[in-house]
Amino acid sequence: MIVDALLDLPQLRTFFVLAQTGSFTACAQRLNRTQSAVSHAMAKLEDLAGTALLDRRGRSLGLTEEGRRLYHACEQAFATLDAATEDLRRHRSLVRGRLRVGATVEFGSSILMKHMQPFLAANPDLEIDFTLSQDLVAPLLRDDLDLIIDCQDHALPTLRKAPLFREIYLVACAPAFRMTNRLKTPADLARCPILSLDKAGTWWNRFLMALPDRDQPVLERFIAVDHVRAMIHAAVEGMGVLLAPRYSVLGELERGDLVPLFPDIRPAEDRFSIYQKKVKAGQEKQRLLTRYLQSLSPAEFGS
Question: How far apart are CA 32 and CA 127, in angstroms?
Fold first, then answer.
């Protein structure tokens, strides 16, 4: 692809955002421009490039081979420019800009929100927006998020991973529920309601796999609750036994609303990590947040 030297930064930025969003409407909204302005910029860019960059066939907007090559070049170039801008600001002891952070729902609401105020107070010129979701890597890859905190492993060559803490799980129920159902061994779970994030009960595999084959109960009475916090409330109300991250039920355990079952059995653990694109990982605002999150005490998370 031979690109005319007259290509300018606003055109390339528009192309880059359009490729990320996949629609003229979404691109215009993100850039605070009209759709016609975006269309005009793309027409001008393709004219100067001397080749088609957008694949307009089909129902969705895509990139041609030349468009994909230009997109990857823009990704590197804008990451470098953003890092250079932050470096200039750092010499004035300022970290400015906007950081879009994603986290899993329970970690974000139970832990992250409790600890962000000191960071924000120390960086008053940095604006942070939070997205709590179970689907994090897709918006990270399309640059809707700058950094995510996730317990799923994302072994992608474009991502940088920074470890945080181990996510320990436990089995618990309300005290009255334990007494009524005479829960003493894992085998007793076969006769009582089991709270699970999914109806098939795959959520419980991390506990079952920690038991010898001969001691694994056959769990059948699943009550599906697709949110950890709602599942905790259901357990407190005596609806069933739950399996949950230990950090998410510390308050309920301290108050006696829930009691742990089978403390000698340790279900399989997850590992929370920070993920960010390698091309952006060098930006000061992301380095600051990464260092701050890694400084938090694992004891708070139940590790």
Answer: 18
pLDDT tens per residue across span 198-236: 999 999 999 999 999 888 999 989 999 999 999 999 999
Below-70 pLDDT ranges, the chain: 1-7, 58, 84-95, 298-303
Give the separation between CA 85 and CA 75, rounded to whole angstroms.
Answer: 15
Whether domain 169-261 has CATH 3.40.190.10: the reply is yes
Backbone angles phi, psi at 76, to 5 degrees: -65, -45
Q: What is the pLDDT of residue 101?
A: 96
* The pLDDT of residue 61: 84
Q: Which of 103, 74, 62 is nearest to 228 (CA)?
A: 103
d(CA 199, CA 47): 54
Residues in the chain: 303
CA atoms within 13 A on the CB side of 7: 20
Arch. (CATH architecture) of 95-166+270-301: 3-Layer(aba) Sandwich (3.40)
Alpha-carbon radius of gyration of the chain: 24
Q: Distance (Å, rounded) from C-alpha 196 to C-alpha 72?
A: 42
- Domain boundaries of the chain, sorted by first residue: 9-88, 95-166+270-301, 169-261
Per-residue model confidence (pLDDT) at position 88: 59
Q: Please report the DSSP string for 239-303 in residue order.
A: S-BEEEEGGGGHHHHHHTSSEEE-TT--PPPEEEEEEEETTTTTSHHHHHHHHHHHHS-GGGGT-
Q: Which CATH class is domain 9-88?
A: mainly alpha
What pLDDT shows up at residue 223? Answer: 97
